[in-house]
Amino acid sequence: MRILIVGSGGREHALAWKIAQSPLVKKIYCAPGNAGIAGVAECVPLRSSDIEGLLKFAEENQIDLTVVGPEDPLILGIVDRFESKGLRIFGPSADPARIEGSKAFSKHLMQTANIPTADYRVCESAISANAYLHEYYALHGADFPVVIKADGLAAGKGVIVAQNSEEARNAIHRMMSERVFGDAGAQVVIEECLFGEEASIMAITDGVTVLPLLPSQDHKRIGEGDTGANTGGMGAYTPVPACPPSIVQLAMTQILEPAVAAIGELGLPYQGVLYAGIMITESGLKTIEFNCRLGDPETQVVLPMLQSDLVPLLIAVTDCTLDKQQPKWRSGAATTVVAASKGYPAHYETGKVITGLDSAALQENCVVFHAGTRFEGDEVVTDGGRVLSVTGLGASIMDAVANAYVGMSHLNFEGMTYRKDIAYRALRG
Ligand code: AMP
Ligand code: GLY
What we know:
The protein is α+β, with helices and mostly antiparallel strands. The chain has 14 helices and 22 strands.
């Protein structure tokens, strides 16, 4: 088979790495890819949002299966466009992808399908947002945290957990009046703050069968001890002690299966990966968000734990035969640590030379997945906020963490920052 992967991050490198192990695959392309992906796939200089360019490429190069990594092309309708030309593509159509594209749509769907989530209000102006905050604080007191979410896409950064009413009003002003997240802030969702442990539960579905992947836990904040700004994710691990199979099963019956069914009732079936960010609270599971794709960096721990071939699973989704598939998982654990550019998630510089990639690659039980990297001559240089992630594998989470940090110790670039406490919740026992 000839496969095209769309995207350029650590998730897409993990996809390319896993797909390259399949005996079914002869050739992999990745658009646009990165310096690491170039080791397992031929990189094609097309942006992931260039749907017409990607379509032309797939037609001209007899691509048998296109696998879409990021949310933007899905929300823009890449799947609808490819399918209209009879091309096989893995991911949800634009309409179901709104589960990630619009927080307001996603909250409404949860409400109608009885999926547990935080209480919320959708506000279309700063005046109505401030009026709702007034009600919220009358109920909870002025020092209670509240969560403010820009409605549209903001690369995982459009969510502010405001600790008090002053921070909350500030966040509304920045999102709705100053438009720091652009049009994503035209509408906001204001949400009750939930407390507990978070987990990422991703499932693969053809619209009828919903198969859970291994649960993982991401570290969204930039700083150790989960402090500082929200990022796309600074590290992840699996398995998650706080999320045993019984919790995954609950998440399937209370959250993922009803969401797939509710979307199907709206018209188009949901096909691809559905990712539920959940909070395990004292009063049960609550859904924080849905994503219409694999998580990044969660994919960098979940795919290395998949023992069986990924490609038949992807094909089964497009053929609606997922009920015949039984993915097999390795025992043990995986942990990934993300190295970011200095300044991320705010302003950062690129073009810094990365050293130690060859010696890190020789490290046992360790895989380096590139994210924001590119070639400059013979050198690999930084090209994004999240630059790469190092996945360690081991018999236990402790071993996996140790292997990830040993791998990371080989690597360097000017301004490299990474959290030293990935998986701390699992390790504190
Ligand atoms: P989201 O983009 O909706 O996943 O939000 C990003 C992060 O903000 C989540 O991973 C949580 O850490 C935090 N968050 C979002 N919603 C809530 C909530 N209702 N209560 C507490 N934390 C939240
Ligand atoms: N790591 C969080 C996400 O992929 O949205």
